[in-house]
Amino acid sequence: MRVAIDLIGSYPELAKTTILTLACLQGATYNTDSEEEPGRIVHEARDENDPQAQRLTHERGWHWPYYSSVDATPEFIRTLAAYTKLSEENYQFLSQTYVDKNGTERTVTYALEMALEWISKRLLQNDEGLLEFKSTLPLGIENQVWKDSWDAYHHENGELANHQKGIASIEVQVTTYDALIDAAEIFEDVFEDQTRANALRAQAHTLETAILKHFWTEDKGGYFVLGTDRANDGTLRQLKIRTSNMGHVLNSRILEGDDPEITRRRQATIQHILSPTLLCEAGVRTLASDEFRFRPGAYHNGSVWLWDTHHIAKGLRRHGAVEAADAIDARMLKVIERTNMFPEYVRGEQEDIAVNHRTVVLWDTTYKRENVVEQPPQEVQAWTVAAIRATKQRIERKSRKK
After folding, report:
1. Residue 109 needs a FRET pair 20 to 30 A away by CA distance; which of 81, 207, 328, 380 works?
2. Are the CB atoms for 225 and 194 separated by under 8 Å?
3. Residue spans of beta strands (DSSP E) within 76-206
4. In this predicted model, what pLDDT tens digit does every residue of 175-230 receive, in sequence order?
5. Please, are residues 48 and 57 in contact by the beta-carbon 8 Å criterion?
6. Where are the beta strands (DSSP E) in 120-226?
7. Long-range contacts made by residues 230-234, C-beta under 8 angstroms, separation at least 24?
8. Could you give the angle at which helices 72-84 and 12-25 cross, rounded to 10 degrees?
9. Whose CA is closest to 212, among 203, 197, 223, 202?
């Protein structure tokens, strides 16, 4: 879906096909073994006879399709809305039919409604009105977000987030906020249903209030924390570390406007993103270099993911920080030139561009498990290619205008 959104202006059919494929796989019932829920969008789809699927089922108990993601469903709504808004002709897409996983013919509008219902139930069932994740499987994916490595969510002292309780990630909340607004605009512009549009906007406003309350700290000049977890008694706690995730807030409606408090938080976020602790030669680090678990070659604790950097650059440009966005794009392009690869990530070195070439596995004595602290990146990675392609297209358009 991220690839589809990044390239939607040039390859709209990719978004259309992605939406329909995911609608066919959308959750239709409750199944603990696959973490399926009605309306939930799949995390990973494999044929159950696939050797990799069989291995994961045997070792970790996963059943297929596997639904252990909380960001895929709001991203689905965002992708659907982005495609619909390309032109009034695309409004007809909402009436297009497909066959769901139970063999029933449905329309794309039905898939939208189901996704919205899944989000609404999750938010209403949460005491603070947040979209949290917690695996229902003993060996399910612990962090059901894009930073899905087991040690990516932790506190400032290095203690892991409490996976026995719900965890909420900042970028999931802002994506959900935008998804609700996107849906409101669809009901307003396409269906002329102002009542439904107003209800969705009210739901988005409630979430906005929760985000600004629970995910902001005044520490270190003020920043959006990675997320929240809960103590064993259910008390909400901030995961008070500086990560690239805060940059995703910039590429959202939530920091738009001239309200003095919003302006202050927007400026503070930009300042952190451009600080030497997060910004390095290759782009924006996943974790600030002065945080406890930082390692430049770690999967999500110090490396630079190109799609992530591209997403943040779009957020900077959205708020008028064009020179900074262009400079970050230039760093990302330099990565491709230097490595001659399209890797999922590179090392977060301060003044160098480098790729991991070895796998380093350590035994974590605190948590009694192996930790792969360094590994070579996957290559070619789709959302890296999409980020580079979208960046080059933007530069080409800008050049033509001159």
Report:
1. 207
2. no
3. 97-99, 105-107, 132-133, 167-169
4. 999 999 999 999 999 999 999 999 999 999 999 999 999 999 999 999 999 999 99
5. yes
6. 132-133, 167-169, 216-217, 223-224
7. 230/162, 230/165, 230/166, 230/167, 231/162, 231/165, 232/162, 232/164, 232/165, 234/127, 234/165
8. 140
9. 223
* N-terminal to C-terminal alpha carbon distance within the chain: 32
**178 to 55, 174, 384: CA distances (angstroms):** 37, 6, 23
Question: CA 214, CA 158: separation in Å to the nearest integer?
Answer: 20
Helix (H, G, I), strand (E, B), or coil: what is residue 188? helix
Q: Is the dihedral of CA 313, 318, 323, 324 positive or negative?
A: negative
Please give the distance of CA 224 from its chain centroid, rounded to a whole number: 15
d(CA 51, CA 46): 10
Distances (CA, A) of 171 to 102, 168, 227, 234, 353: 32, 9, 8, 22, 26
Write down the pLDDT at residue 140.
Answer: 96
Query: What mean pLDDT is predicted for residues 81-108?
Result: 97
pLDDT (tens digit, 9 = 90+) per residue, 263-275? Answer: 999 999 999 999 9
Q: How many CB atoms lie within 10 A of CB 87?
A: 9
Contact indicator for 342, 381 with CB cutoff of 8 Å: yes
- Taking alpha carbons only, the member of 255, 386, 387, 225 closest to residue 321 is 255
Residues 18-63 have pLDDT tens digits of 999 999 999 999 999 999 999 999 999 999 999 999 999 999 999 9
φ, ψ of residue 233 to 5 degrees: the values are -85, 5
DSSP string for residues in 256-287: -S--HHHHHHHHHHHHHHTSTTTEETTEEBSB
Q: CA–CA separation, 124 vs 207, rounded Å?
A: 10
How would you label 310-341 residue by residue, b for 16+ Cβ within 10 Å and e otherwise?
A: bbbbbbbbbbebeebbbebbebbbebbeebee
CA distances from 350 to 78, 226, 279 (A): 34, 22, 8
